[in-house]
Amino acid sequence: AGPDWDEGPTDAGSTASTAQVITVTSAVNTITGKLTASALVQGDFQDCFLINIETPSQFSITTGPGIGGNPAFNPMLFLFRVDASPTATLARGVMANNDIIFGSTVAGLRQLTNDGSGGGVFGPGVYMIAICGFGSQPINANGQNIFNQAFLEAGAIAGTAAGLQDTLLAGWSADGDVGNYVLNVQGVTGLPAPGALALLALGGLASRRRTR
User: Fold this and answer.
1) 87 belongs to a structural domain
2) Number of structural domains found in the chain
């Protein structure tokens, strides 16, 4: 048996409109993928996946260990709340983590932030997981870092930057580390078919493949 969801040969994308829509009909336990850099083609430095957080109190995601062990690079994780409009699919910052504990490069997210921001996953719905290597950060349309930089400290799960009005993902600050990864998740299911189809229609999203 393989992972619940495999990014496959088609890149998961780095925005809400290019993210892979996870459409499995049951609980999602693992997500596998790869970040790559090439001198010949544009690098793949971020991967984004649209998910349904069904049980916020059980929500958890870590970058390892898993199939193949921990990732062979320094990953960072970000969570966004997804809103669809008639013209776009929007991703609003929720939380971020670099190292879940001191002395480890494993990244992880839980239901609540611990940086004093009061952020967290307070209701079920459509969210976006983003993974990238250290050195890359999500930014808004003004080029500002979306998340409180406390997330770079070991053990910190941080919310959005204090006082920031625009927390919508518009791009990424730089390229980061690359490599293979496995995400272990809890409290997550694929998007129900009607929801996935609605997002596809509104935001031009494309679902990819799964491996069982």
Assistant:
1) yes
2) 1
List pLDDT tens digits, range 78-100: 999 998 776 778 999 999 999 99
Give the closest residue to 15 by CA, choosing from 164, 162, 185, 140: 140
By residue count, the chain amounts to 212
Domain of 178, in residue numbers: 5-207
Pick 178 or 96 by higher pLDDT. 96
Nearest to 121 by CA among 78, 156, 151, 85: 78
Return the closest-CA partner of residue 46 out of 104, 122, 127, 128: 128
Per-residue tokens: 167: 């927390």
Sign of CA dihedral 179, 180, 182, 188: positive
Report the run of H or E that residue 203 belongs to, with start and end.
helix 193-203
Across the chain, mean pLDDT equals 85
Domain assignment present for 17: yes
Q: Is the pTM of this model over 0.70?
A: yes
